[in-house]
């Protein structure tokens, strides 16, 4: 745990990322891409797949297309297969809430903190994840990736969430698991708690020391313990 500024009080609102922060979906995404890309004779590493984390669907499609030799038709076909793989995982009940997230949500809710979600996932996918995980009830506001013009790391999605929650950036904070999401939140002026799910590259580590990074935590439990000390 590397928390900062322990005199900081609880905010009026907390805005969460979805995939990798609230729900454990990144493993399913990776499994799906491994299975689908293998059909095209393409093998990718976990490090390559981690490049997809937190980015827009358009950006990720471009990266997948590069893995498929620049063939757009193959990329669209592979994307459809991967989406079907994920939809089947949801139908099979594979979506799991991340460890100690319910403790964190209840801790904040019990103290009158308003809760929102800002996710790069499009509404159809993101809503199905929130419903399958039974988390939707916790949030007053959800902003999806297809509801803003520019995705993460641009600040648009957090700015829209702040607008819907009717709070100023200095009255709120964010919880993110990717550097892309962290940058989106801090660009919107939000103090951000960082719960990285995978090892960071040297390039990514440069951004973690941003003044608005409220701390890096190994788990949601560490973040809850930190907030309780206030």
UniProtKB/TrEMBL annotation:
InterPro entries linked to this entry: Beta-PGM-like (IPR051600), HAD-like_sf (IPR036412), HAD-SF_hydro_IA (IPR006439), HAD_2 (IPR041492), HAD_sf (IPR023214), PGP-like_dom2 (IPR023198)
Cofactor: Mg(2+)
Keyword entries, A-Z: Carbohydrate metabolism, Hydrolase, Magnesium, Metal-binding
One Pfam family per UniProt: HAD_2
Gene Ontology molecular function: any one: hydrolase activity
Annotated family: Belongs to the HAD-like hydrolase superfamily. CbbY/CbbZ/Gph/YieH family.
Protein name: HAD hydrolase, family IA, variant 3
Organism: Aerococcus christensenii
């Amino acid at each position: 745990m590397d928390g900062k500024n322990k005199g900081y009080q609880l905010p009026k609102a907390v805005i969460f990322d979805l995939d990798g922060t609230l729900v454990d979906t990144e493993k399913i995404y990776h499994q799906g891409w491994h299975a689908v890309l293998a059909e095209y004779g393409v093998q990718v590493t976990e490090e390559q797949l981690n490049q997809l984390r937190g980015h827009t669907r358009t950006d990720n499609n471009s990266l997948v297309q590069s893995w498929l030799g620049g063939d757009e038709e193959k990329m669209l076909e592979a994307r459809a297969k991967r989406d079907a793989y994920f939809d089947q995982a949801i139908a099979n009940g594979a979506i799991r809430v991340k460890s100690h997230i319910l403790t964190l949500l209840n801790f904040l809710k019990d103290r009158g903190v308003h809760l929102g979600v800002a996710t790069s996932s499009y509404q159809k996918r993101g809503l199905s994840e929130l419903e399958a995980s039974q988390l939707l009830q916790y949030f007053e506001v959800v902003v999806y990736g297809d509801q803003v013009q520019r995705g993460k790391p641009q600040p648009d999605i957090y700015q829209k969430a702040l607008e819907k929650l009717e709070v100023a950036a200095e009255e709120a904070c964010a919880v993110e698991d990717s550097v892309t999401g962290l940058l989106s939140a801090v660009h919107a002026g939000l103090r951000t708690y960082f719960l990285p799910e995978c090892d960071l590259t040297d390039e990514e580590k440069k951004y973690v020391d941003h003044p608005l990074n409220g701390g890096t935590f190994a788990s949601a439990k560490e973040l809850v313990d930190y907030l309780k000390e206030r």
